[in-house]
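Q: A reviewer asked whether we had any structural model of the full assembly, not just the individual parts. We don't, so I'm hoping you can provide one. Inputs are below.
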Amino acid sequence: MASSKPKKEFGNMTDASGDELKLLGVWDSPYVNRVQIVLNLKGISYEYIEEDLMNKSDLLLRSNPVHKKVPVLIHNGKPIAESQVIVQYLDDAFPNAGVLLLPSDPFERAVARFWAVYVDDKVGSPWYTILFAKEREEKLEAAARAISAMETIEAAFREKNAAEGAPFFGGDGIGFVDVVLGSYLGWFRVIEKMIGVRILDAARTPLLAAWAERFEAADAVRGVLPDDVDKVIDFLQTFLH
Ligand SMILES: N[C@@H](CCC(=O)N[C@@H](CS)C(=O)NCC(=O)O)C(=O)O
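A: Here is a predicted structure for the entire assembly that you could use as a starting point for your response.
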């Protein structure tokens, strides 16, 4: 399936130091989108390969034989799977390319990793249930869990904001937690259309609502997250049959 829209070009497919990077993805996957955003933030060029998850390529099956999922980043022929692992790998492998996503202080790094895990566990898992559960009741319960997690994340952000006045979890710029949480933003609009529940609501979590606007306005983010709700819902149908 072709990408929904052309991805931003940040140069040739091979960067200045001769590294070759390929990203296996699916256009509407939050896990893939977060890797794309990080590659954009770092100004690293790469070849994007759209996968058909109903008919996975040999390259995907060979590159991620354990989970058989996207994203997979292939760096000079070596595959790396799991989006959070990939983002941290990009910091390690390209320390001089633009921004670093993780803070340098070990304690701050641990805090960022804690919240990134929390987001995928408490927001990402309910997201999956909302999409694929058969019963509406089950979807609504999952949405309530995601909303409660958003309130917890809002409280953590409020504390950070009070201490530092920072616009992002990463401080002045987008960091690890920002890309992990931010990659679900397009899907929150999809969920609202699907089940009529707003996961991110300015009335409940005003700081996160303002943060989301800042995040989506960033150059590295614009054009990456799926913005055509109906197109995402149509695409989703292919996995529900
Ligand atoms: N924990 C993984 C999740 C990746 C994931 O769930 N990818 C989905 C697309 S959104 C996938 O490839 N699904 C294919 C399958 O389950 O067969 C990550 O962070 O990379």
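A: Points you may want to mention in the reply: The pocket of glutathione is lined by residues 26, 29, 31, 53, 68-71, 82-84 (CB under 6 Å). The chain is about 55% helix and 5% strand.
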